[in-house]
Prior knowledge:
This protein is globular. The strands form 2 sheets. A two-stranded antiparallel sheet has the order 1-2. It has a two-stranded antiparallel ribbon with strand order 3-4. Strand 3 (347-348) and strand 4 form a beta hairpin. The longest helix has 32 residues, at 152-183. It has 22 helices and 4 strands. The model has no long low-confidence stretch (mean pLDDT 87). The protein has a domain at 263-480. Helix 11 (228-234) runs antiparallel to helix 12 (237-243). It is mostly helical.
Amino acid sequence: MGLAETLSFAYPELLLAIGSMALLIAGVFIGDKSAKQISLGAVLLLVAAILLVLFAPGAPAASLFDGAFRIDAFADFCKVLIFGSAAIAILMSERYLANEQKGRFEFPVLIVLAAFGMSLMVSATDLISLYMGIETQSLALYILAAFNRDSRRSTEAGLKYFVLGALSSALLLYGASLVYGFTGATTFSEIARIAALSSENYGLIIGLVFMISGLAFKVSAAPFHMWTPDVYEGAPTPVTAFFSAAPKLAAMALFTRLLTSSFLDVVVDWQPVIALIALASMAIGAFSAIAQTNIKRLMAYSSIGHMGYALIGLAAGTNDGVGSVLIYMAIYMAMTIGTFAIILMMRRRGGMTENVSDLSGLSRTNMPMAVIMTVLMFSLAGVPPTAGFFGKWFVFIAAVDAGLIWLAVAGAVLSAVSAFYYLRIVWFMWFDEPVPAFERDSGSILKVAAWGSAILMFPVLTIFMGPLSSAAGHAAASLF
C-alpha cells in the first residue's frame, strides 16, 4: 500500500492533528476573546472527522504503517461515538468557559487533542502504537483535569490523575515488555500466532496480567478505580462530563481489541481475571455510591459499576460479547452525557451546586428538569423499558451463552443494589420539600443534550436500537 493510499485512511486523524494545531496558533494570536470561535472551530473539526469516518472511500478494512494501526468497522464505530461525544462536551462547556474561565480558548483544543489520541487508541494493533495512543490522550486529559488553575480541588485532581496515570502506564509498559520478551513481536497478529503455538507460555500470561492492570486503570475498573471519585469531584464539571464518556469508550475499545486480537487463543487464562474485575467493579460501584452526598462523586462510583457491566461482555470472549460491550458503551455514553447536562444546569446565583440534596423538590421548582433526571436515573438503574435495561440485557445474555451464568446472576443482584441510590435521587426530586430553585437560563445546548438523552432512553419510541445493534454486531465481527 502506497503512502498516499495509507494516509487516505488516516484522514480523520490528520484532520484533528493539523486542525488542533491551527486552532491553537489562532488562539495564541487572537487571545482569550477568541474562545467562542475556537470552540466552534473545534466542533466543526470533530463533525468533519465523523463525516470522513462514515464516508471514507476504499476497502472496509486496512492495516496502516506496517500493521501498527487498523481501520475497520470496529474502529469506525468507536470513532464516531468518540468524536460525537467530544463535540457535545465542547458545546456543553460554553457557559462554563464564558463565566468561570473568562473565555480561555485552550479547553476545546485540548479536547480535540484528546479525541485524536483516542482515535489512535481504537485503531492500535501494535504494542508501540497502543502506548502512543494512550499517552497522546492522557497528556491532554491531565491538563483538562487541572484546568481550573484557581481551584485547589482542580489542581489536586489533576495531580492525582497524573501520578496514578503514570503508575498505570508503568504497569502497562512492564506488561508489554514481558509480552515482547516472550514472543519477540509487538504486532497483535504476530503475538496471537505465537500465543496459539504454546498454551503454557507463563511469561506471556504474566505480561498480559500487567497489561490488563494498566488498562483497567484507564476504564476505572476496580481495584484500579481509586483515582475516579477524587478526579470526578475535583475536575471542572464540563471536564468530568467528558471524562465519563469518550475516554471510557476509547479505553474499553483498546481493551477489547487487545484481548480479542492478540490473546483469544488463551481466553481461558484471562477470562477469570476479567470476570473478577467486572465483579469487583460492580460491587464497589453498587455499595460505595450509597453513602455519597456529592452528585459528581456518586456518578464516579456509578461509572465504576457500569464499567463492570461492560466488562461482563468482554469476559464472554465471543463475537456477541464484544457486540454487547459496544451496545452497552453507546447507551452508557448517552445516559451519562444527559446526566451531566442536568448537573451543569444545577446553578444558583452563587454558582454551581453539586450536592444530591440540592435536587430536593425539583419537581415543584422545575418540572421538565425533574422529568429528564428521573428518566436518566431509571435508565442508569436498568429499569425496563429504558435503554439501560437493554444494555444490561445484552451483556447478561452474552455471559450466559459463554457459560458465565454466575457472573450474570451477580450482575443482576448488584444492579438491584445500585438501584437504591438512583431511586433515592428520584425520591428527593419528587417527594422532598423544595429547596431554592436553579437558574432558568442554563443555555439551550444543555437543554437539547438533556432532552435528547432522555428521549433516547426509550428505544421503543425511537429508531436507534435496531441500527445500533446491527452496527455493533458488524463492528464486533470485524475483530474475529
